[in-house]
Amino acid sequence: MGADHTRPAPSAPPGVRRILVATVVPLFVATLIAALALWPWDAPEAAPGTDPPRHHGTVTRVVTEPCPPAPETPEGSPGATEGPCGTVTVRVDDGPDAGQQVETPVPAGPGAPTVAVGDEIILVELTDPADPSATAYNIAEHQRGQPLLWLVVLFAAAIVAFGRWRGLAALAGLAASFAILLTFVLPGISAGRPPLLVAVVGAALIMFVVLYLTHGLTAQTSVAVLGTLGSLVLTGVLGTIATAATHLTGFGTEDATTLSMFQADVDLHGLLLAGIVIGSLGVLDDVTVTQAATVTELAHANPGLSRMQLYRAATRVGRAHIASTVNTIVLAYAGASLPVLLLLTADSRAVTQILTSEFLAQEIVRSAVATLGLIAAVPLTTGLAALVTTAGRRGGGSADPDAPPTPPVPRPAADRSEALEALSGPRAGNTPTAAPAGWPDRDGSTDTAW
To answer: 8: Cβ–Cβ under 8 A, 6 or more apart, which residues?
Structure first.
């Protein structure tokens, strides 16, 4: 009788499960204790806003007209004229003047919205200090709530349609990530807690919740958790060393300078390190989960692969993954900083001075440190996964020692050699023992379960 390929993936041996539980559970408890110790219980409440009232409105009429000539400058030349000019009639949809038609000037100036009849816009209510009863309205921006809502619905529907239950778990993990960021990380930093410590603890919380929620309570997920946590700590250490060696202060952007004026007790140098750690987490999760899954799949497809063969084969996959991910990291940082990079290209200073400026230096440090942590995650996670997957084998045979031996099924030599080469690669000395024919697609059952 042929092999039973419908049998589920073998579970990790009891000894391995005990070791993983004894390692992961204390780390999780330590993370919870650190989070409670750093929790912003005394975070100051946000000051009441002083912004003018904002109301929804709908454009009903737009009238443009030539702009009046600008007054001459002291040198006698005509001044610059900002356009367009004219009036916009808007129906106020809420507030004390709901249902009324009001006239506002056509928005002008840098970044001003371009409006047309039927556009839904945001009105700012302005009051004359000398006469509080006299109010006027200006158009601030377009209403974006409905388009954003439809985009989020499409985003969620696509993830669930493709990933099904795992996609739904991924959405729940995403919601948990934002909840931790908004309730712990950001308030903790605002309350004056050490930003790097808050970022590491917050990233660890996100990692535990997201990985186990998305991928289940399995030995494979635990390996990814340990690899991610080790890489996060290494990223924080490397970031501390790199920012100290390059004398970065954290004041490299206009946003950081503005933040220092409103919240003087925030450690901007620590905030820079926190950003490096939080920004690295998503890519680290991707790499560690992929490496753990690769080792598990290879071991299930050919139980004859030795621990070193598993490590080498999965590391080759990791090298290809890292080669593309490094480019992703750099381009992500460059894309987020395009306006500043364009401004720097127009700078008259030498290229070396631009590259060593505070802003660009911190982006280089951010990319380099994140990449180093990413590279370290591959051998760390792959080694742990190979140890866990091959633990409990008898004589280097099947990962399930209680399974009865399966007689080999004859198949053409050419097909067998191609399959074996796909598993172990063409390197001499890495050819594994022959595996049964008809290896199945173990979708959803390849994890080494607790």
So the answer is: 445
Residue found by looking up tokens 């908004």 in the block? 182
**Would you say residue 87 has pLDDT above 80?**
yes
Please state the φ and ψ torsions of residue 107, each to the nearest 5 degrees: -60, 135
How would residue 205 be classed by pLDDT, with cut points 50, 70 and 90? very high
Give the three-state DSSP class for 56: strand
At 132 the pLDDT is 67
Is residue 216 within 8 Å of 447, Cβ to Cβ?
A: yes
Amino acid at 166: R
Residue closest to 275 by CA, chosen among 378, 361, 369: 369
Task: Give the alpha-carbon dihedral of 268, 270, 274, 277, to 10 degrees.
Answer: 130
- Please return the burial class of 87, using the count of CB atoms within 10 Å of its CB with bins 0-12, 13-18 and 19+: middle
Least confident stretch, 145-149, 222-226, 320-324, 404-408: 404-408
HSE, side-chain direction, 13 A CA sphere, residue 209: 19
Residue recorded with tokens 């954290």: 250
The Cα 45–Cα 20 span in angstroms is 42
CB neighbours of residue 124 within 10 Å: 16
Question: Which residues are bridge partners to 105 per DSSP?
Answer: 87
Q: Pull the structure tokens for residue 303.
A: 């139980």
The backbone torsions φ and ψ at residue 63, rounded to the nearest 5 degrees and listed phi first, read: -125, 120
3-state SS assignment for residue 151: helix
